[in-house]
Amino acid sequence: MTALTTHAPVLLIAIPLLGAFATPLIGKLGRGARNTLVGLVVLVVAGLAALLAVDVFTAGAPTIYEMGGGTFTFPLSGGQVPVRILFEVDSMSAFMGLITALIALTGAFFSFSYWKDRSGSNLYFSLFLLLTAGIFGMQMTGDMFNFFVFLEITSIAAASLVGFRVWLKQSQEAGFKVMAMYTLSGLFVLLAIGLLYGQYGHLNIAALASRLTGSLTDVIALGLLLTGLAMKAGAVPMHMWAPDAYGEAPAPTSAVLVANSQASLYGLFRVLFTLFGASVSTGAVGWILIVLALLTIFVGVTMALIQNDLKRLVAYGAVSQIGYMMLGVGVGLAVSATKPEFGLVAMQGGIFHMLNDAACVGLLFFASGAVIRASGTRDLNAMGGLAHGMKWTSVCFAIGAVALAGVPPFNGFASKFLIYEAAFKLSPFLAVIAVLSSILLLAVFVKAFQAAFLGPRTTAMAHVTDPSPGMMLPMVALVLVVVVFGLFPGFFVDHIVTPAAKALWLGRDAYINAVLGG
To answer: Which residues are within 8 A (CB) of 37 and not within 5 positions of it... i.e. 6 or more apart?
Structure first.
């Protein structure tokens, strides 16, 4: 392990955080200097995330990084309290770091051209990096209170980015809705942390996990955490902020908001498997996740069916995919004690879909942003024949759409097939709903593609062309991820997905022992 890898957990947070504060200052030197700074930050962060993932996957055990470790003495009472910040990174944390790095990297480079000649870009990139730092913090921390702090950092940055375009009424409304829902989510999480701290006197996840007894206080705390984190992930019926946020935010921001939602979903999974584990009824909690998953899938797909706004259509498609992740992990949790032979398959499918969804939805938001910017409209009824002038954008949109719907040989099929297989073994009804919803989603995107890209080229759309290379290259990069992960799913399942799934599903003791010993 090199010094760079050793310090990677804190550097993944510190570098974008420092970049966020430096961006407005460097921006005074000009757009080129600012873009250079932001580009270097996301490139370094992506490299660090990759190095950390390789190290953790190779070691097969969590890595611990401790800041501080001393004590603070109160001047009047003489009492002492420990002062330290602990990061604990296992294969699941490292896996989530790769997702965040991918979206931050492509989103930043897409933004360079997307925000060219637009006002307020210094503030935009500052908030972008702040959101990235907060997401990494949620994934790397081993402390519940620090998790809450990073959760709030992402809430502030995300709400600001959604409502960034103050000259648009819809953007302001969406930003206010996001702020309200994120605040409520944070209050639920903070109250749960307070209950656990009052009961056990610890905030460290491993220390709490070793002491939970399944008492009434524990159950109440679990309910609060489940509600708060599912709300911020955008699960139905607490999803009302997500379509507005994804739909009204700038295109690259929408992609990062998906990564932010997945970080909250990761927090939920970490709470269920690592913090509580066997101290609660895994079967009952698993079925709660499954019910929420089915509602999210169904509502997301059916609401997408009636949309004429291209961006909101993609937004509801993104909401539906949260349900597939929850379905896979919910099935894994429900059968963890009774049918472990296919519980791991369910976990692999749900976790693999997190990476696949980030690539597919990110690609669709990028392509939608390019279309809206070129055509000047979001209304599918006002478009038509865009493929004549936006050939490569139309190809990117089509690939993202069929991959999200789970059509082979793209990456969405690989992860959804694992979910279908495991869900069918638990209950054929679950698999039928999941498959039919994917078919319906495919029909939704076929309709959208036909309305926007096919048909004769209208006079109003005669001027549209593919975006600049600065916007096309990030889309092409995500296309490569979609195609390569779809053509060679076995390799990625074996080397990155399975270690992540096992760390979450079977690695509770290893996570606790890494901190407490034993």
So the answer is: 19, 22, 23, 26
The answer to whether residue 459 scores a pLDDT higher than 70 is yes
Cβ-Cβ contacts under 8 Å for 433 (sequence gap 6 or more): 294, 297, 298
CA-nearest of 363, 354, 360 to 327 is 354
What is the residue range of 361's domain? 281-487
CB 349 within 8 A of CB 505: no
DSSP letter, residue 141: B
- Is the pLDDT reported for residue 405 higher than 70? yes
CA distance 397 to 451: 13
- pLDDT score for 507: 84
Cα 390 from Cα 398, distance rounded (Å): 12
Tokens describing residue 288: 């709660």
Res. 118 pLDDT band, cuts 50 70 90:
confident
Tokens 């990155």 — which residue? 496
Interval 470-497 mean pLDDT: 95
Contact 111, 474 (CB under 8 A): no
pLDDT, position 360: 95
How much is the average pLDDT of 146-154?
96
412 is a domain residue: yes
Instruction: Give 495 or 76, the one with higher predicted confidence.
Output: 495
* 357 within a domain of the structure (yes/no): yes
Q: List, in sequence order, every residue forming a beta bridge with 85; answer none if it has no partner.
A: 67
* DSSP letter, residue 495: I
CB atoms within 10 A of CB 470: 15
CA-angle at 349, arms to 474 and 510, nearest 5°: 100
How many independent structural domains does the chain possess? 1
Beta strands in 74-227 (DSSP E): 80-89
Report residue 510 as tokens.
């290893």
**Which residues 6+ apart lie within 8 Å of 12 measured at CB?**
45, 48, 49, 52, 97, 136, 140
One-letter amino acid identity for 230?
A
Q: Quote the pTM value.
A: 0.94
Residue 421: inside a domain: yes
Encoded tokens for 509: 């003791």
Q: Are 391 and 464 in contact (CB under 8 A)?
A: no
Do the domain assignments include residue 267? no
> What is the per-residue pLDDT for 279?
67
308/105 Cα distance (integer angstroms)? 30
CA geometry: angle 41, 484, 349, nearest 5 deg: 90
The tally of CA atoms less than 13 A away on the side-chain side of residue 169 is 0
Whether the CB-CB separation of 515 and 142 falls below 8 Å is answered with yes
Among the listed residues 382, 366, 364, 375, the one whose alpha carbon sits nearest the alpha carbon of residue 316: 364
What separation, in Å, do the N-terminal and C-terminal C-alpha atoms of the chain show?
23
